[in-house]
Amino acid sequence: MPSASTITLNSPLDMHLHLRDGDMLQNIAKESAKTFSGGIIMPNLVPPVCTKEEVVAYRARIRDAIGDETFIPYMTLFFKPEYDHAFLESLREEITAIKLYPAGITTNSEGGVSGFDIETLRPALEAMSDLAIPLCIHGETNGFVMDREAEFVPIYEKLAQAFPKLKIIMEHITTKASVDALERFENLYATITLHHLLITLDDVAGGMLQPHLFCKPIAKRPEDREALLQAALSAHPKVMFGSDSAPHPREAKEACGCAAGVFTAPIALQVLAELFAKHGAIENLPDFISNNAQRIYGITPPAKKIILEEKPFTVPTSYGGVVPMYAGETIDYSIREVMDG
Amino acid sequence: MPSASTITLNSPLDMHLHLRDGDMLQNIAKESAKTFSGGIIMPNLVPPVCTKEEVVAYRARIRDAIGDETFIPYMTLFFKPEYDHAFLESLREEITAIKLYPAGITTNSEGGVSGFDIETLRPALEAMSDLAIPLCIHGETNGFVMDREAEFVPIYEKLAQAFPKLKIIMEHITTKASVDALERFENLYATITLHHLLITLDDVAGGMLQPHLFCKPIAKRPEDREALLQAALSAHPKVMFGSDSAPHPREAKEACGCAAGVFTAPIALQVLAELFAKHGAIENLPDFISNNAQRIYGITPPAKKIILEEKPFTVPTSYGGVVPMYAGETIDYSIREVMDG
Asked: Scanning A2, A133, B50, B314, which has its CA 20 to 30 A from the CA of A178?
């Protein structure tokens, strides 16, 4: 029987996850599947996932890498303005959402959207609205790195206003400006990563430079982190956990010209438990980690019970060649048991 | 005879220079001596330079590494609040300035000042004022990385007001806030690096992470760079060039947890010529690169004439194991000739 120092989570969901492909997929997908019931799988492969066949084939490769049925890969399509109603209807059953990347803004986003002209986007977005397909957006402009997300907020708002029945998810928000935008439009939602609840630019570049904490959007200011933390800890009903866990090989992270992304999948639940417990908000973790996402997306993930306990866990220095956040450090919570069904 | 596409500089000075010690000193000191007439040598060795004997011995090691007399190492002492008038008088002839580091703020600054209580600092700073020893300050607080310098400006102002005859040099300024402070107190001066005239945080962390552009103070916002550029290009009479050229071995820069510092000594004059020429301000470069410093510090460096020409130069990928700024890239100006005397 769980003692007072355990925390039980039901069907955790990771609403923003990069599982990659090939060897990397084989290496790391099972780390998410161990402790999560499902995740929104980002489509920014090379080439990006843009057709029904590609969605179906990618899902099959993910299932093959995971090897069990207790984790649902909720698939997404890489947004293109030319998608029409007939096309989207033909693959509606295969996808949970569509992900929009501004062109050139992050890893493998070269084929993304370069302008946000409403009339250009209208056919695709009205079709999505009609088919109740949520639109996930990586919201950054090409501006100065600390301003990119805040500069994108007016674009979120323009889209939210033009397509009031379209659910728009502001992905991996990092600023107070984005948190504030949640209140202004009913159809705006957000995911927040683990690392943006924990770090600011100080942790990346305030002491020595820390490539393993370098991510896009870059970690922002203390007041931004505070706004994110308050939204998560208070179980804001429009906010979901999305790790943006983004593995790169150690060589790519430690090289000159390091790639952006923090790998948190294997330790996300343990660290979230520690964070919420520390702030006396553990009763709100189920909403952040699963309930809000189920309601917003209208999904019912497989039943899975994760029992975490307050017991030190030393994070491995590598998972299949990928360095996780807190590599080699000791965190306060461990996974005691995972029960399916 | 120099053609129209050449630029002649007389006795360039680098008013903020790290020459290190040991093998590194042997490797890189001559790169500054080739094209500069002198430089203010920073004292943050391990242990820092704090006595007359240490100053004299360090100068001798620098001269030995350089091997000629056409470059003057203007020596500095590492500031400690316990320095008194008699001590400073005893080594007045050996030093050109004293450098103050807030504790723990940059490379080898652990023994620096932790509080800025005027009465604690008064004996040492009044002695410096009396002996006309300029005070060079690395002005950063322990605050958020983008705010550290602006947060230090009130400390600069407090010192400037309390010691009105003390020349205070705000070293390697990176913000509009510091440029603005120059106007408010007669006894505040500043150095500006090459890299802070060229880059913003975007260049360090806006695309891939670029450890070779990681420095302290960190590169700031576009409007900050613009303010620095205007001060330099207009030959602001209180502003001097100080490269803060800070070599680290390639391994230390490209490692996880990269050290702060950009190595610009070998290419500084060429790139400054290009920058000032591009902005139509070449006639102001002599003030920025030498005349202002001679007047502010009251020094007369060895006569040395540097003829630069508009001719592509491919920057070596390494100088003795140290990666310079623009490594492997082609810049527009070359050193054509250096004439002593």
From this structure: A133
**Considering only CB atoms, which chain A residues are within 8 Å of B218?**
205
Task: List the one residue out of A107, A27, A91 whose CA is nearest residue A62.
Answer: A27
Which CATH architecture best describes the domain B13-266? Alpha-Beta Barrel (3.20)
Instruction: Please state the rounded mean pLDDT for residues B106-119.
Output: 85
Inter-chain touch B254–A256, beta carbons under 8 Å: yes
Residue spans of the domains in chain B: they are 13-266
Which member of A205, A212, A257 has the closest CB to residue B145? A205
* CA distance, residue B120 to nearest chain A CA (Å): 28
User: Most B CBs within 10 Å: which of A109, A224, A256, as the mutation test of the B interface?
Assistant: A256
Q: Could you read off the pLDDT of A253-290 as tens digits, one per residue?
A: 877 778 899 999 999 999 999 999 999 999 999 999 99
| pLDDT confidence band for A4 (50 / 70 / 90) | low
Give the whole-number percent of chain A exceeding pLDDT 70: 99
CB-CB under 8 Å, B218 with A257: no
Q: What is the mean pLDDT of residues A59-69?
A: 94
Residue B117 catalytic?
Answer: no
Classified as helix, coil or strand, A31 is helix
Q: What residues in B contact A222, CB-CB < 8 Å?
A: 144
pLDDT tens digits along A279-328: 999 999 999 999 999 999 999 999 999 999 999 999 999 998 899 999 99
CA distance B49 to B323: 26
Residues of A in contact with B209 (CB under 8 A): 209, 211, 214, 257-258, 260
- Prediction pTM value: 0.94
Nearest chain A CA: its distance from B142 CA (Å): 9
Measure in Å the smallest separation between the Cα of A219 and chain B Cα atoms: 11
The pLDDT confidence band at residue A168, using thresholds 50, 70 and 90, is very high
Q: How far is A251 from chain B (nearest CA, A)?
A: 10
The conformation of residue B260, written as its DSSP 8-state character, comes to P
Which of A144, A209, A218 shows the shortest C-beta gap to B211?
A209
CATH topology of domain A6-340: TIM Barrel (3.20.20)
Q: What does the alpha-carbon distance between residue A81 and residue A102 come to, in Å, rounded to a whole number?
A: 12
Cβ(B10)–Cβ(B307) under 8 Å?
no
| pLDDT for B114 beyond 60 | yes
Residues of A in contact with B253 (CB under 8 A): 256
Determine contact, residues A159/A184, Cβ cutoff 8 Å: no
The alpha-helical segments, DSSP class H, found in chain A are 22-35, 52-66, 85-90, 118-130, 148-162, 176-181, 195-198, 201-205, 222-233, 250-254, 268-278, 285-286, 292-297
Q: Judge: A144–B201 Cβ closer than 8 Å, yes or no.
A: yes
Backbone angles phi, psi at A164, to 5 degrees: -65, -15
